[in-house]
Amino acid sequence: MIWEKITIEEYLEKDGIRSGLLADIVNKSPLHAMSKEIKLTPAMLEGQLFHTAVLEPELLPLKAVTPPTVKKGKMNHPSEEWETFLNECYANNLLTELPNDIVQKSATTWLNFFRPGVNIIDEAKRLQIEGIQLSISQNRDAEKIIKEAEKELTAFMTAKFKDQKGNEYKSSLKTRPDLVHPENNYIADLKFVDDAKRFNPLKFGYDIQSALHLSMAKLIQGIIPKYYWIVIERSFPHGIILYSYDRDSEFHKTAVKKMQRAISIMQACIVSQHWPNYSPAEVSLNNNPKGYIY
C-alpha cells in the first residue's frame, strides 16, 4: 500500500468508498449514502478552483479564464480584445476549435467552445482567488505546510471480511488528503468557510474524513501523523486559522470509533445486500412519545 499521485478524475473513477459516504452512513443512513449522486455542484466547482489556486497555482490559467468585459449592446462582433483572448485560449488548448469566422460569432456564443473543465469566471471571482493566495502567502505557518508537503496524494485499501457462514467479501476504501508530508509526519486539508472561528469539523463529517486519512497513513508510513485543517475564509480579508490534533487526543479516538462503526455497517450492508433507511429509533421528535413521523 502506497501514496499514489493520480488526477481527481482518475480518483473518482476508481472503485472505493470515500469518507463522505462513511459520514453519511453514520450521520444519516446507509440508504442515504448509497443513493447520493456524485455531481459537481457550484459550491464544489468553486472549492476545486480554490484548491487549484492554493495547491497548484501554475495550473490555474488552464482551469479558469476571465473573458474581456462585453459592453452593453456589443454582444455581437467581438472586439479586437476578445479576438486576442480567444486566440490565446486556443493556443493553450482551452477551446475545442477556432473557426475562421471568429469575428462573426457573438461573445456569448464563444463561451460554448471552451473544453469541459475550463471555468469561465468573472473579475470578482478572480480577485477573490488572488486574495486567498495573498492571504496564504502572508501566513507563515500555512504557507510552510503547503509549500513543503506533497499535494493531493491518493491511497486505496481493500479489506477482506467474512460473514457468520464463512463466506468471504471485500470492501474497498479510498482517500485523497490535500497535503501529505511523510517525512515530517503530518497531513493537512484545506477548508474554505464563511467564518473560520465557527469551523465545526463534525458538521460535514470532517472528523471521519480525517480519521480515514490518518488510518491510511498509519498503514503506509507505520505511524499516525499529526493532522491540520487549514481553514480559510472565502471573503476578504480571507482570515486563516490552523486547527490541529494528534493521535492521543480524545477527538481522534472518537473519530476513529465513528469511522470503524461506519465501516462495520457498510460491511453488514454488503453481506445482506440491504441498505436500510433511518431506523425506527431515529425518527422520534425530540423524544416526545406523542410525536410521530409517517
Structural write-up:
The protein has 2 domains: 8-36 and 140-281, Lambda Exonuclease, Chain A (Alpha-Beta Complex); 67-120, no CATH class. The protein is 40% helix and 16% strand. It has helices at 8-13, 19-27, 30-35, 42-55, 60-63, 80-91, 107-110, 123-137, 140-148, 206-221, 250-272, and strands spanning 64-65, 119-120, 150-151, 155-162, 168-175, 179-181, 186-193, 226-233, 240-245. The chain has a 5-stranded mixed β-sheet with strand order 3-6-7-8-9, with helices on both faces. Strand 4 (155-162) and strand 5 form a beta hairpin. The longest helix is centred in the last third of the chain and has 23 residues, at 250-272. The radius of gyration is 23 Å and the shape is globular. It starts with 7 loop residues before the first helix and ends in a 22-residue tail after the last helix.
SSE blueprint:
Blueprint: H1 8-13, H2 19-27, H3 30-35, H4 42-55, H5 60-63, E1 64-65, H6 80-91, H7 107-110, E2 119-120, H8 123-137, H9 140-148, E3 150-151, E4 155-162, E5 168-175, E6 179-181, E7 186-193, H10 206-221, E8 226-233, E9 240-245, H11 250-272
Parallel strand pairs: 1-2, 7-8
Antiparallel strand pairs: 3-6, 4-5, 6-7, 8-9
